[in-house]
């Protein structure tokens, strides 16, 4: 299924996802450059809510640019298969070699603001990330390794510890709690 169809079929869980879905569909229709970093205003990205096999812990990295513990993920860089992007990013950022999507469908949608920053010695202007999140499982006993150009730490945390570790207000107050609530519904087979 292509991304437009996947987003059209996505059932928003709350008002944030409802409005972000509309914005993403408009960008997909009107901004063919949105899958490339050359777009000045919008980049499509994929993130992963990586859970252990018991689904009681999440994997987080210490993100160097955001200076905070964070989920895993990255830019589409031209790839419109965002599940593929999410899996690739998890492997690159964590050193994990085996990860399993718990569902092929989109788990969550978020439009995220990104402040201007320096990356690889070059200034990147403030912009939006049209972020598609997938639910992915990994073995918490598998070896982990950091990706020094992007993160400086990686660890499994309980949901409460993960929230406590994050210093990004929007993520801590809105995104991560939503993902944890949706995960609880998924575990109960109640996430439609």
UniProtKB/TrEMBL annotation:
Belongs to the Nudix hydrolase family. This is NUDIX domain-containing protein. Transmembrane segments: none annotated. It holds the Pfam family NUDIX. It comes from Vagococcus silagei. PROSITE patterns: NUDIX. Signal peptide: none annotated. Residues 41-182 form the Nudix hydrolase domain. It comes from the Bacteria. InterPro entries: NUDIX_hydrolase-like_dom_sf, NUDIX_hydrolase_dom.
């Amino acid at each position: 299924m292509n991304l437009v169809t996947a987003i059209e079929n996505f059932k928003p869980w709350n008002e944030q996802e409802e409005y972000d879905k509309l914005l993403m569909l408009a960008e997909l229709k009107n901004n063919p450059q949105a899958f490339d970093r050359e777009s000045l205003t919008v980049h499509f990205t994929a993130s992963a809510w990586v859970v252990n096999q018991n689904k009681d812990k999440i994997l987080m990295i210490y993100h160097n640019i955001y200076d905070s513990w964070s989920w895993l993920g990255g830019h589409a860089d031209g790839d419109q298969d965002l599940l593929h992007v999410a899996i690739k990013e998890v492997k690159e950022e964590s050193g994990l070699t085996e990860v399993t999507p718990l569902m092929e469908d989109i788990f969550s949608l978020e439009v995220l603001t990104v402040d201007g920053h320096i990356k690889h010695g070059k200034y990147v202007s403030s912009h939006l990330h049209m972020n598609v999140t997938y639910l992915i499982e990994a073995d918490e006993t598998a070896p982990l390794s950091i990706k020094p150009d992007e993160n400086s730490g990686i660890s499994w945390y309980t949901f409460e510890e993960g929230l406590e570790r994050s210093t990004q207000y929007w993520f801590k107050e809105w995104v991560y709690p939503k993902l944890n609530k949706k995960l609880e519904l998924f575990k109960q087979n109640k996430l439609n």
